[in-house]
Design a protein that fits this description.
The N terminus is likely disordered. The relative contact order is 0.09. This protein has 3 domains: 74 residues, no CATH class; 73 residues, no CATH class; 190 residues, no CATH class. The chain is of the alpha+beta class. Helix 5 crosses helix 9. The strands form 2 sheets. Strands 3-4-5-6-7-8-9-10 form an 8-stranded mixed beta sheet, with helices on both faces.
């Protein structure tokens, strides 16, 4: 995107298509602009444009020509994207740690503005003000009302349209398989990603030993594989959770686990999604979510500090490393516990509101 008839013009955006190749054709599952925060979160991307894109791709397969209407809808005039970005900053509140205070400011401003507007109109009717006094009010409405309508549209989509999808996705959690299968190092291309190789090299240089790789079977996460390392402390396991999701490079999350002899454990993760649903918690363990800690070594250091505190409180020593088959058995037992928790704690509006304001829980302790 950004091509305005001049082949030398700079490219402003890239249209990202996520899908899979079937029978020589591209099956598009999602599409978004490169300046979007994540797929589905770009308020400038409309379902109508996505539908037109899918139709256009089908026509392109037949004739190798992009339909003029689609080309026109994807080609923006000069300055359009700058104006759209400005409007997005004014009207939209992107996800992130500062989303809640920004939302509070927007809601407070619009509530105060419309309350003041209603009061002015009331005084105009009651006190017979001269109509010229309302000119500044009308001018302000021309600027504030469009921004408010866009803000209301974006937030309603995130609050109400996303809730049924997330509830439906979480409703199937109790039915997800609990069986874990060990895979060979070359069983999946997911582990060949540069990010996975980089993290693995850093861990091995720090004294971690590769224990093995495993997946769930039948998989509930297409393209997901977990590469497990034994930490040099003799007790902790660090897993690189690789999710390809049909795109490259793969997404890598880090999970760290330490087990104690009586069955409870301390667990840490940097996956933000783990902080939005109480059903993720199981009994008899501490689960910490640290989404701001990106690197595996940094997460291991934070996890080790929590393990030291927990061990001192319980007056216990963590259980030493086991054979990889025993570790896999622990993962199956953990997932079985989680399935029961998911059945007892389905996705609720409380969970959804926490996701809406982007305030994940930092710790589960029960």
């Amino acid at each position: 995107m950004g091509y305005h008839g001049d082949p030398t013009a700079p490219v402003d955006h890239v249209l990202v298509l996520a899908g899979e190749v079937r029978a020589g054709g591209l099956l598009v599952k999602a599409a978004w602009r490169s300046d979007s925060d994540r797929p589905g979160d770009d308020p400038l991307w409309s379902p109508a444009l996505e539908a037109a894109l899918l139709v256009g791709l089908d026509a392109f397969r037949q004739s190798d020509a992009v339909p003029p209407a689609l080309a026109k809808s994807l080609t923006r005039p000069p300055g359009f994207d700058r104006k759209q970005r400005t409007m997005k900053k004014v009207a939209a509140v992107p996800p992130g740690p500062r989303r809640l205070p920004r939302l509070a400011v927007r809601y407070t401003f619009y509530a105060a503005y419309f309350a003041a507007l209603g009061y002015v109109m009331y005084r105009y009717i009651e006190d017979d003000w001269v109509w010229i006094c309302l000119v500044p009010v009308f001018i302000s409405v021309l600027f504030v009302l469009p921004a408010f309508l866009l803000f209301a549209r974006f937030e309603a989509r995130r609050l109400f349209s996303a809730e049924p999808r997330k509830r439906a996705a979480c409703a199937g959690a109790p039915d997800r398989p609990a069986r874990c299968v060990v895979v060979g190092g070359g069983a999946t291309g997911c582990l060949d990603s540069p990010s996975v190789r980089k993290h693995a090299a850093d861990l091995e240089a720090a004294g971690f030993a590769h224990a093995g790789d495993w997946v769930r079977a039948p998989t509930d996460e297409p393209g997901a594989v977990r590469r497990v390392f034994r930490a040099p402390d003799g007790a902790t396991y660090l897993s690189l959770v690789c999710r390809s999701r049909g795109v490259w490079p793969v997404a890598v999350e880090v999970q760290v686990q330490t087990f104690f002899p009586d069955g409870w454990r301390v667990e840490s993760s940097n996956a933000p999604a783990d902080g939005f649903w109480w059903g993720r918690t199981t009994a008899a363990h501490v689960f910490r979510v640290l989404p701001d800690v990106a690197g595996p070594l940094e997460l291991f250091a934070a996890h080790a500090a929590e393990v030291a505190r927990a061990a001192a409180t319980a007056n216990q020593t963590p259980a030493p490393h086991e054979r990889f088959e025993q570790f896999i058995g622990r993962q199956e037992a953990i997932h079985e516990e989680e399935r029961r928790q998911w059945a007892l704690h389905p996705y609720s509006w409380s969970d959804h509101l926490r996701w809406y304001v982007d305030r994940p829980r930092k710790e589960y302790r029960r």
